[in-house]
Design brief:
The N and C termini lie far apart (40 Å). By secondary structure, the chain is of the alpha/beta class. It has ten helices and nine strands.
């Protein structure tokens, strides 16, 4: 739900998308950008240099709130780019600059699997330029290219695409499973994905979500009554190892412009190539659990 103080600033209340094909009114310019900058400065000043703040996320799955416009323009070399690419990049720069000045902390943005499996007119190279690191998140069941119900390589593949297209280190800000899986399956899946992300040189990863929702959805670390699942122990034990971040070595990649132009085939083709590329690494680093 998006709440705006006045109809002139956007929508008083709207779910993502709503009647507008792009979601709410323009998130990246004009009145809504001014409101975001005002909030960013106030929040940043309140939490300036706070030891518990690692970084700011300027928008959680923001493309679900407002998908940038879909018109493509020629950008040279017989390629096309989204006409709104510059506006989205300027949005990221403005919020990152404001948060850095007000709080002393860096920023990122909540890009997600849908931004890579579909052309939503986001280009990670320009979007992520001002960020300290890029972010990626996705629930396993939402990944159309996953080979089976517990594909340990699907999230690492998304992280690799994110790193390659953004030219930034990557923090996986959310991964998980639906409640259709057993508690032991969730713990086993988590351990395997974490091991692979670490081997690939990612900055870290968060499990989505904290506690089960009685209405269903993603599998939490805790049950609805607050008791721990095996997943909690898996995360605690992994964290206790206090691993250092490995140096990322990603496979050679096609240009983002070609990747988006050839969707959805490019996702499947590159996933197959990724599986071959990491096979030896998984064996050498003993992550084939």
């Amino acid at each position: 739900m998006i709440l705006i103080l006045s109809p002139e600033g956007g929508l008083c209340a709207c779910p993502p998308r709503g009647d507008n094909a792009f979601g709410c009114r323009d998130l990246y310019e004009d009145a809504l950008l001014d409101a975001q900058l005002l909030l960013a400065r106030a929040a940043g000043e309140r939490l300036r240099n706070h030891s518990n703040v690692y970084a700011w996320d300027i928008g959680h799955e923001f493309s679900n709130v407002r998908e940038p416009g879909g018109v493509k323009v020629f950008s040279g070399a017989h390629s096309k780019a989204p006409s709104t690419e510059g506006a989205v990049a300027a949005w990221a720069r403005a919020l990152t600059k404001t948060l850095r000045e007000a709080s002393g902390h860096p920023a990122t943005a909540g890009t997600h699997a849908g931004d890579l499996e579909v052309d939503r007119n986001l280009r990670f190279g320009t979007l992520c330029a001002p960020f300290a690191f890029a972010s990626m998140q996705g629930l396993h069941e939402d990944l159309t290219f996953a080979r089976h119900r517990l594909d340990f390589e699907a999230i690492p593949f998304l992280a690799m695409l994110t790193a390659t297209f953004s030219y930034k280190p990557v923090l996986v800000t959310g991964f998980g499973l639906s409640e259709r899986h057993t508690e032991s399956e969730a713990a086993f899946y988590c351990a395997n994905v974490l091991a692979r992300l670490h081997a690939d040189g990612r900055q870290g990863a968060y499990w989505w979500r904290w506690v089960d929702d009685r209405a269903g959805g993603a599998s939490g670390i805790l049950r609805a009554d607050g008791s721990e699942k095996p997943l909690a122990r898996t995360l605690r034990e992994f964290a206790a190892e206090r691993r250092t971040v490995e140096r990322a070595t990603d496979m050679p990649m096609i240009a983002a412009v070609y990747y988006y132009r050839t969707l959805p085939a490019s996702t499947r083709t590159l996933f197959d190539a990724f599986l071959t590329f990491v096979e030896e690494r998984r064996r050498d680093r003993n992550v084939l659990l």
